[in-house]
Amino acid sequence: MKKHLLSVLFALAFGNFILAQEVTFEEYDLDNGLHVILHQDNGAPVVTTSVMYHVGAKDENPEKTGFAHFFEHLLFEGTKNIERGEWFKIVSANGGSNNANTTQDRTYYYETFPSNNLQLGLWLESERLMHPVINQIGVDTQKEVVQEERRLRYDNSPYGRWREQMFINLFKKHPYRWQTIGSLEHLASATLEDFKEFNQIYYVPNNAVLVVAGDIDIADTKKMIQDYFGPIPKGADIKRNTFTEDPLNGPIKAVYHDSNIQIPAILMGYRTPSQTERDAYVLDMISTYLSDGKSSKLYKKLVDEKKMALQVFAFNGSQEDYGSYVVGGLPVGETSLEDIKKEIDEEIVKMQSELISENDFQKLQNKAENSFVNSNSSVSGIANSLARYYMLYDDTNLINSEIDIYRSITREEIKEVANKYLIPSNRVELDYLPEQKEAN
């Protein structure tokens, strides 16, 4: 009885903690189309200023890939009022940190400062938007940086090209078929005018959202935003293409040889819906169920119990237009890739034919709650979430309400979605193999 009472009290306390995490925010538009989101949290003297641009690898010309990621680097080169090489020095000298990242759907820049440097953060991002210096020196420098990144993370990294090989088979029409790193050949052949044109099209206020989160005064912050961003001219309306993929009609068999590995891998990739669809949330839970941690079904079965695999994995990559669900493993000893595939399929069929247990289902709910709390545990995390939910989901308040979607998912839905998407006709089967040795 005492144990039960403690469990109830803990659940109530945890529930209250979840409610206490509600993120308040205010959003509005400037006349030039820049969307602004403000979140005030005076609990610590820290502030994050961030700008997300609605441009990613999917917006590139198929003959000029890699531009979005390239700009992630290029726009730190300097501006009309910031000398080349000085950006990071300015940030660190004022007690701040900064970074940027690119996906196939968006590009994101941010700084975190002591709150008395809010004005500096706003000035830096307004400079990036209004006065970027795009010249041949910067382009040549960043081409070398991107080339080295490509070599380090893709070409010379074990299993570094699995995603590339999977996606060229999952997508035939959509730009998701190429990776954000793009083609080094395309970047090498691009002209300075190509880069200037890309900047002119996509780096405009009406294609961006500015988020300021942390220890701020709302009225003062609005005035600074107007002063720094208000004068920036609105850009032309952006024309975006839409792409509809045909059914896969699989399974599609693919093979790739990687000179950087000695152990083969099997990867099975399924094409899934847009991240805004409810099914995408269910697939998140399916991924957690199958391989999130050592207590997951596939890990316990293939690694712990049967000792057939060194590693198993499953993850749901939700994106703006389509998603992908990839599951696979690395075999041990004489275990074949076909053996691994058979075992994984058996576990998927179990989900498709019977409901997962109540205990497993509660674990999924707990992990969703924990992830929700962690994502909003810092002002930088909150800034990122606010920008992402506004730009890619068209619903900023998902920062508060998304957890309700996970809470409302049922065991029946998990079974239904597994039957809907995790089927052989909707998948690519990639044998990722060591490079073949030539016979003497």
Automatic annotation (TrEMBL):
Residues 36-151 form the Peptidase M16 N-terminal domain. Residues 190-366 form the Peptidase M16 C-terminal domain. The keyword Phosphoprotein does not apply. Residues 1-20 form the signal peptide. Keywords: Hydrolase, Metalloprotease, Protease, Signal, Zinc. Belongs to the peptidase M16 family. This is Peptidase M16. It comes from Flagellimonas eckloniae.
